[in-house]
């Protein structure tokens, strides 16, 4: 069973819980928090989730905050993370096909829960195309 890291801040907490339930039985989900609606700092949860992917404990990650921006920016500070902000399934598909994204960021304040689960499903069920995209992906982390 494939392993997925999930994390959110307070604005994404309810979506995180819905997505976890949606993935039950299909994937092994490691929840990095937050665990309530109390105000928190999203990097405290994003960094451990991203580390788990870099260390090979989890294959993919799902991050949720109000806009999706903060969690995406934080995750992308990690050398081997490619996190895409997605607000429609087509973006999740392209992020996997062309960019080999290993994390997605969802904007809880701007999408409905059904759309969020559709985006997650698309992300998790889309393969990287490789080919001409492989060379481009390899150039991302050269600093």
TrEMBL record:
Keyword Isomerase found: yes
Protein name: Ribose 5-phosphate isomerase
Classification via InterPro entries: RpiB, RpiB_LacA_LacB, RpiB_LacA_LacB_sf
Residues given in the record as D-ribulose 5-phosphate binding sites: 9-10, 66-70, 99, 109, 132, 136
EC annotation from Swiss-Prot or TrEMBL: 5.3.1.6
Domain of life of the native organism: Bacteria
Record GO biological process: D-allose catabolic process; pentose-phosphate shunt, non-oxidative branch
Active site: residue positions: 65, 98
Family under the similarity heading: Belongs to the LacAB/RpiB family.
Alphabetic keyword roster: Isomerase
Gene (UniProt): rpiB_2
Molecular function (Gene Ontology), one example: ribose-5-phosphate isomerase activity
